[in-house]
């Protein structure tokens, strides 16, 4: 463990005791959440003051460099040694590291924010939600797309009955980052480390948005029919991949090593809801030409709506009596979260969803209030993901268990 100069995110004259944060993981999600923590005092002054206390990882040199950039006071290579020293543990590590640190933190009374999917398996997710139930600490699951203003606006329309009886929901999450078979292997391609591929990495977001948007209007998802596919079955090993020592490699020692891909590259599924409504969802890492295209559409008896992450400040809405969709710019001061940002019409971006998410979560921690999405929400998503995978294995519709 190494110590650095203290970094408190406080407002001038703010005398409250900061919420101390420990963060496990410092790559993609580490940057997203550290950026959000740094933005909070400027744009959400009512959020509690925080102290970026300790950054946790394995590579000490990389850890020190990351702590400098992300603003953490010290570093640690052993999460067990520090989880009871902070108020909040952000678990942003690979999926196979979600369960044990999170459970241990909750047992120590430390609040936990764990990125999605909650765990690689439904069994591990069940253990995590049980630990959350037994703890007085708050346990949050990181589904940041719930905090897009346009998604909040859409949920309000659905709850108010603007779309009538919900008949159908369609969601897709398309990326093309793995199209090239020479893209190196990573832990995300290992069933042991990740649990699943596009299904868990991308599909978890879609399933959570379906649950969040539709709420109780269609009942729960009762059964699913799923199909998974893997297009490239092995990939070259990158010597710089920190996860390369976790599984066996094939090939020779002349730079031609490859490693098996043991997860799906794409999935699709049909959903049957208790109300009789139906859903169609899919995700792919092989959708050539799509960089981060997450869309969702809801169709009701009197109206419809459509959302695309690539135009996240907009919502397309079809209202009863209109012949076509209208595009609503969800940037007005009265729209969800927007009073914190810029004048109407000045758009926000993907990174702002994490600011909203962290503001809500840390306020819940400071006030001892409930936070959603919770570990229970993460577990319910995991049940659906598990059922989709079982359906693919069996080649038939399966109930949610």
Short descriptors:
globular; 2 domains; 9-stranded mixed sheet; alpha/beta; 8-stranded mixed sheet; 401 residues; Dihydrodipicolinate Reductase, domain 2; Rossmann fold
Note down, in words, how this protein is organized.
The chain is 29% helix and 24% strand. It is α/β, with parallel strands linked by helices. The chain has two domains: 2-145, Rossmann fold; 149-344 and 376-399, 2-Layer Sandwich (Dihydrodipicolinate Reductase, domain 2), CATH 3.30.360. The strands form three sheets. The chain has a nine-stranded mixed sheet with strand order 18-17-16-15-9-14-13-10-19. Strand 4 (50-56), helix 2 and strand 5 form a beta-alpha-beta unit. The longest helix is centred in the last third of the chain and has 20 residues, at 375-394. The chain is globular.
